[in-house]
Design a protein that fits this description.
The structure holds 2 protein chains of 2 kinds. Chain A is an all-alpha fold. Chain A has a single domain, classed as MetI-like fold (Orthogonal Bundle). Chain A has 8 helices and no strands. The longest helix of chain A is centred in the first third of the chain and has 41 residues. By secondary structure, chain B is of the alpha/beta class. In chain B, the strands form 3 sheets. Chain B has a 5-stranded mixed sheet with strand order 5-1-6-13-7. Chain B has a 5-stranded mixed sheet with strand order 10-9-11-8-12, with helices on both faces. In chain B, helix 3 packs across helix 9 and helix 3 packs antiparallel against helix 10. Chain B is globular. The termini of chain B are far apart. The chains are: A mainly alpha, B alpha/beta.
Amino acid sequence: MIKLFVDNWSQFLTGFGWTLLSSVLALFFSLILGSFFAILEVIPNKFARIVGNVYVEIFRNIPLLVITMFFYLVIPMYVVKINGFAAGTIGLTIYTSAFIAETVRAGINSVDVGQMEASRSNGMTYVQAMRYIVLPQAFKYVIPPLGNQFVNLVKNSSVLAFVAGFDLMYQGNSIASTTFETVNTYFVVAIFYLIITLPISYYMQHLERKIV
Amino acid sequence: MKFKKYLLLISTLFLALILLSGCGQKPLSKQNILDNDKESKTITWGVKADTKLIGLIDVKDGEDKGFEIDLAKAITKKMLGKDAKAKFVTVTSQSRIPLLKNGNIDAIIATMTITPDREKVLDFSDSYFDAGQSILVKDGSDVKKVSDLNGKTVIGVVGSNSVQNVQKYAPDAKVLQLPDYAQAMTALKSGQGDALTTDNVILAGMAVQNPGYVVQGKPFTVEPYGIGINKGQDDFKQAINKALEEVIKDGEYNKLIKKWFGDVPGFNYKEVLRYD
């Protein structure tokens, strides 16, 4: 296994780099997008609630691979040319954002209504009450489930392999099929994924203990 | 402190994996596949399911159909008698060797070229077909031959040797490897690459299915296909070679070639007929 790594280290590291980049990008944008739709789902406006709900229900209930394939194959045919890496990362962002929206919404809802009512009766506007009173409390509740989403996101990034996104899994497939060392190759790939996901798990546990 | 704990965990895992991989590599079977198959009157073949003319699952009846399927059936009958059955398991270029190695299939008949690299990990029967690598492009493309691919993007399939070959003939081409031919073709259609490269017979099938796409230029390699067999199964290999020889001798082979490649535009079936 060590020999396999030594022989193919540049390919493994390239894959590791792309996986990391894709995960970081998807994490950043899905957090923004997810929070945005979560807020849409809770503000007292029927139209916004419907938009938020439809978005979440559609993308939460379609397999990630289908969303990704759509961006890889259909969009380039009719709209704009996007490569495998971009298609995979976009798919990952949209898919994860739907889950994050649900998580954040649950967090906001778990803050007692009394908090909002008290802020409003103290003269705060709705936005101020959200910004200074409700959201800070909500984020505390959602840290553990958000951590899960982040770990899932990193693992789901292996979808890039199906659209030639040069990630770890793609390089793994390529190495396995040229060296025929299938078992060892996927062991190395698994270790690389752990290198990304374990620190996230640990850091989330740490945050959980510190804040909550 | 936290960091130390994390480091410890990673290194433990590393150790465990190294130990595991050390003992997981024993040869799978000391069994004689030929004897097993004689007893069950069945040979399990790994075949393609997405390659028109070669091996394709017909969506209407779920049956495998194609040249390799018919050839596998003919070889099975010659080896084990008229009432023997050929069982088909779908493989891809990527999965075929692992599936053979772990014993899920007895033999691979799935457009696999005999290459020295592969001969290190498995045995091949005599060649049963001579293909050649070529490229498929959109009609009217400015890619006329393989060297035109330099600086362009070419699509191939993971695990096929065509992706390695094309890097020899067009070193500056960017290669995208997709999981199977159906997906590679769709990617070509949606403009993810400028050409699709693999063996000419496979491309001929794709050109039949997708009007507006043509096989461009002469083949630039020779790809003798062989039936892949696990190492150490010499009895099985000899039986397959003998059966293949008989299929060629009694003219059944040429009948199959004519049946599948008789009227494929851009493919001269007479070049691949075999006489003994």
